Amino acid sequence: MFGIFGKKQKDIILPILVDIHSHLLPGLDDGVKSIEETIYILKALHKLGYKKVITTPHVMSDYYPNGTADILGKLAQVKEKLIERKIKIQLEAAAEYYLDENLIAKLNNQEKLLTFGRNYLLFETSFFNKPTFLEEAVFIMNAQGYQPVLAHPERYVYLQNDMGQVDKLRNMNLFFQMNMLSLTGFYSRDVKKFAKKLMQADYIDFMGTDCHNAYQVNELINKVNRININLLRSRKLLNRSLL
């Protein structure tokens, strides 16, 4: 599973500096299974040029009902290990909320949600079906002072052939976060094609790894040469503002 550091290859540094989407707190969701895997991934990301990682466990009522105390408690454990190992990368935590009735209820009850930076609130939806209350949720988030950020819009089938809907969401003050691996064809050709379309439209505010395991970070290192670094530099990405 591990072993990328034993390979000789040309080092490519990504001009992102801060990752805002990953699943690196062991045991909370479908992400890493151990602190050792977490440490391996963080060292790999540091090799790619990252200075800070804001990891975002799933909050999903049916599968991953993580609360703020669960996430921050696990974060503290991992940070202790980083200090012990003298690994110099900043680690923080927020969450990736799944948009369902439970999240709408949290918003309506004005429950404090985990955010990063300037009150950025990361959330995801079903990959195939547009939630009937998507626009309502975006409106509520904005009204409550959050800056909503939609995770990996390039992967949503319901958006891939509907730029009108994409334009509408952007006009509602919804930010977009793209997965780095989407630009390499890791998920599918359709995702890669739509990712490039969104980048060309200058609709991407954040890049994220959405890293769940050692395999994915190895894929990022192995395929990083497929990413147009100049394209990343030319876009007004907000990652660097989070240092």
Would you kindly provide a written description of the structure presented here, covering whatever features stand out?
The chain is α/β, with parallel strands linked by helices. The chain has a single domain, classed as Metal-dependent hydrolases (TIM Barrel). The chain has nine helices and nine strands. The strands form two sheets. The protein has a six-stranded parallel β-sheet with strand order 3-5-6-7-8-9. Strands 1-2-4 form a three-stranded parallel β-sheet. The protein is globular and about 45 Å long.
Please give a quick description of this structure.
This protein is an alpha/beta fold and 243 residues long. It contains nine helices and nine strands.
Give the name of the CATH architecture: Alpha-Beta Barrel
Classify the helix fraction into a percent range: 25-40%
Number of helices: 9
- Mean of pLDDT: 95
User: What percent of residues are in strands?
Assistant: 5-15%
What is the structural class? alpha/beta
What overall form do the CA principal axes indicate? globular
CATH superfamily: Metal-dependent hydrolases
Structure characteristics:
single chain, TIM Barrel, 243 residues, globular, alpha/beta, three-stranded parallel sheet, 9 strands
Topology overview:
Blueprint: E1 18-19, H1 35-47, E2 52-55, E3 58-59, H2 68-85, E4 90-93, E5 96-98, H3 101-108, E6 120-124, H4 134-143, E7 147-151, H5 157-160, H6 163-171, E8 175-179, H7 189-200, E9 206-208, H8 214-223, H9 229-234
Parallel strand pairs: 1-2, 2-4, 3-5, 5-6, 6-7, 7-8, 8-9
Helix pairs in contact: 1-8
